[in-house]
Each structure stands twice: as structure tokens, then as C-alpha cells.
Amino acid sequence: MPMPAIETMAVVALTFLLAGFVKGVTELGLPTVSLAILTAALGLQPAMAILLAPSLVTNVWQALAGGHLREILGRIWSLLLALCAATWLGVGVLAGASTDLLAGLLGVLVCTYAVLGLVRLDPPTLGRSEPWLSPLAGAASGILNGMTRSFVVPGVLYLQALRLPRECFIQAMGVLFVTATVALGIALHNRRLLSADLGMLSAGAVVPALAGMVAGQRARQRLSEAMFRSVFFAVLLLVGTFITIQALSVMR
After folding, report:
1. Cα angle vertex 148, ends 109, 11, to 5°?
2. How many C-beta neighbours within 10 Å does residue 227 have?
3. Which domain holds residue 217?
4. Is residue 43 in a domain?
5. How many independent structural domains does the chain possess?
6. What tens digit of pLDDT does each residue of 53-70 get?
């Protein structure tokens, strides 16, 4: 089995070092940052596969820590079930659709997420619509998860609309990320979109992702989180715009 090219390994390592640092500082952003950079560098399908192991490892602790797991599962179980089922359908689209078109969709989603982060728009509270809106948000997140590996819109926005306490919200994001990652990994494997080489790159990316997280957690004590988040979303907007333009230029 041939080893991945040194250049590719270097790109992956640096990407997850940066993405882990962002997550360490802001407690979010590893999937979005790494997916955006790797899609621009390697393409959408490889990026989705490489993201699996570091995303799972860095979010398991977040999903289990906090003491709110039973409460979270009781609140969003229908969202998680719908997400798993819809991810399977989304990967089916990925297997047969133009990856350039889906990369363009990813670029738009990343830009949307960045703009919402910059303007700090809070979604409205759900009220009585929560029981039926939860599976709909899960289905939409799952379809996008399977097609692009990006589900922050509407997944994370839905969690924000629940108005959970801070620690509970952070743990709920971990539960959402772990569920989406496992569902995507199973679907990619069954569709034969997860090769041995990509699996090796994904496993190797865990170390720089964890190293970046540790560095980010230490830096958080000295940095203004508000300033960092502004820079983070601005850079993400630029990367998302680049992915969209790149995809459109290829489709012409």
C-alpha cells in the first residue's frame, strides 16, 4: 500500500494543527476550518474522509463531559435520528453528483456560517415548534453532512435556538458532532468512499489536532476571545469565498 505524498501529509498536519488551535480557543470550528482548507487543497471527498478521525477524537470528550448527556439526548434525540438517516441519503448524492457542484455548496455554507458569526445573529427561540422542527433540522443537517460534511447551518443554529446553558450547549455540540461524524464514517465506508490511504491520513491527523487544541486552550487565557472569533470568521469567509469561486470556475 503506497504511503501518501509528503506534501499531502504536511498539508493535512498543518491544517489540523491550525483547526485544533481554533477549537482550543473558541471550543468550535475544527470541522469547518479543516474541511474548508482541505477542500481547497485536496478536493471535497478526500477532505470529508480525512476529517473523520480527528473530528471524532476531539469531540468525544466534549460530548461526554459536562454532566448533561441524559438531558441533551432527551431534548434532541429526534434531531440525531433524523441526522443519521439523512446522512446516508446525502452520501448517496455525494457518490453520484459532481463534486465541484458540492464543493461550491460547501463554500456557500462556510460563507453563511462566517457571516452569521460576524454579525452575531441569534436565532429566534423555538417555543411550541420544537417537537416538529427538531427532526426537520436533523434531516437538513444530515443531508448537508452527507453531501459536504458541513452541518453547522442549520445544526448548530438549531442548538443555539434552544437557549441551553453555556456548558450544556457546549456538550450538545459535542454530541451533535460525534453523531454526525460516526454516521458519515459508516455511510462513506459502505459507499466505498473511504480508502486505506485516506484512513491513514485521517488517523495521523489526530496528533496535530490534539496538539493544536492544547496550544489553543493555553492561548485562550491570554487572548481576547471576541477579537479571535472576529478574525476567525473573517478568515473563514475568505476561504469559503475562495472555495465557491474555485468551484464555479471549474464548472464553466
Report:
1. 95
2. 9
3. 6-251
4. yes
5. 1
6. 999 998 898 899 888 999
